[in-house]
Every structure is written in C-alpha cells, then in structure tokens.
Amino acid sequence: MAGILRRRGMDSSVMDSQEPEPAPQPVTSLALADARIPPRYRQALADHPEVAAWVDEIVRAGRPGPSGTRGIAEGPSLLIVGPTGTGKTHQAYGAVRSLLATGVRLRWEAVTAADLYARLRPRPGLDAERELHTLARCPLLVLDDLGAAKGSEWTEELTYRLINYRYEYLRPTLLTTNLPILKLRTALGDRVASRLSEMTHRVILDGPDRRRPNSPAT
After folding, report:
1. Could you give the residue ranges of the DSSP H alpha helices within the chain?
2. CA-wise closest residue to 156 among 119, 115, 188, 117
3. In sequence order, what are the residues at sequence separation of 6 or more whose Cβ sits closer than 8 angstroms to the Cβ of residue 125?
4. Cα-flanking dihedrals φ and ψ of residue 113, to 5°?
C-alpha cells in the first residue's frame, strides 16, 4: 500500500496520521420534530411567560417510561387567544419545541381546524373514526385556528367528540383561536366552550398584526 501511495505522489505517513472521521451525532427528538414543523416556525420559542410556565408544568407531570426517559402524561391544556398576527401559532410550536428540548418522550400531532375537518370529511377509502381516535388519543395535540373554519352541525359534533375525549382523559392540548371567548361559544357550541373553559389555562396575546409591513417579526 505504501508503494502504491508513493507512485501516486501521496505521503503514506500523512495518510496514516489523519484522524478518523467523527461518529455521526444521534438524531434528537427536537431535530425530528423540526422536520415536521412548518419552516416558518422551526426556530419558534415559547417566550411568553405563561406559555413557558405551562411547558414546565407539563414536564413536571411527566412519568418515567421503561427506559427511564420521562414522557408526558395527564395535564392541563392551553388556549392561546388573540387577533390575527399576534404570534399564537409561533407560541404553540415554540411550546412543542420547548417540551422536546427537555428530553421528554413526546408523540404529537398538529392540525388547523380547517384541515381537521378536511381530513375527516367522509370519502371513499377513509376510516374517519380511526383518524378521529388517533387525534383524540394523541399525547399532545396542537389544534390551530379553532373557530376559524365555516361551521355546521357536522363540524360542531366532530369538534365536540374530539375535545370531549381529551377533556375526559386529561390529554394536554394546545389550542389557538382568533375569536373572543363569547364568539368562540357561538362558533363551537356550549358543550365545547364549557369544556374548554374548565380544561385550559388561557393566554391572551394582543398587539398589531406582525405579518404586516413595519410590524415586529413573529
């Protein structure tokens, strides 16, 4: 081998002294989550004090799994309320990233209310009940823009079934809405609004629409 390297003008002593390439770093849960989070929110931080406090509460309530790693269990939910562009979705994804950064085991789903209804609308080949049960039982669900989609008896019943399951089984849920609480009751119905009132901590965001020119970045 040394002779071959010399004929090619290569110094075998240099080759021998090269340090081995470092072993690849393990992929973290946070890195895997960032691959699923929309690019706009991949650097999101839960920097609102009440959102950060909720994250801490969920982590403290976690239970050790077989490997010793803590996983989230039962806990309170969080309702983030505010006008368009005040950073509600940013805070919600920031909370997910903060939970994963602590090292907890976390299976989570995120969906807007409009996409939820589109996803579960009956059509050939879809097991809507199975899809609904998957979302209902998920350890952490992010339900964005609650009340923004056009409502009907079907959407109200679907929302009730999803929220009621998570209410009864104390599944932590992150919800955002543009609607004031009174209008949320009108949009979702009394049954859903009553359960949200009991199961969630409420965070109010205000200020200008940050998506508009000359507004602070989200």
Report:
1. 2-7, 12-17, 29-36, 49-60, 88-101, 113-120, 128-137, 153-168, 181-188, 190-199
2. 188
3. none
4. -60, -40
Residue 169 vs residues 77, 137, 163, 216: alpha-carbon distances, Å: 12, 9, 10, 39
Amino acid at 36: R
Helices (H), 37-178: 49-60, 88-101, 113-120, 128-137, 153-168
Q: For residue 177, what are the CA distances in angstroms to 11, 72, 87, 181, 202?
A: 66, 24, 11, 9, 11
Q: What is the pLDDT along the chain (218 residues), one digit of tens a residue?
A: 555 545 555 554 544 444 455 444 444 566 777 788 999 999 999 999 999 999 999 998 888 776 777 788 789 999 999 999 999 999 999 999 999 998 888 889 999 999 999 999 989 998 999 999 999 999 999 999 999 888 899 999 999 999 999 999 999 999 999 998 788 888 999 999 999 999 999 999 998 777 776 655 44
CATH code 3.10.20.740 for 28-204: no
Q: Model pTM?
A: 0.81
Helices then strands, counting H and E runs in the chain, come out as: 10, 7
C-alpha to C-alpha distance for 169 and 77, rounded to whole angstroms = 12
Domain ranges of the chain: 28-204
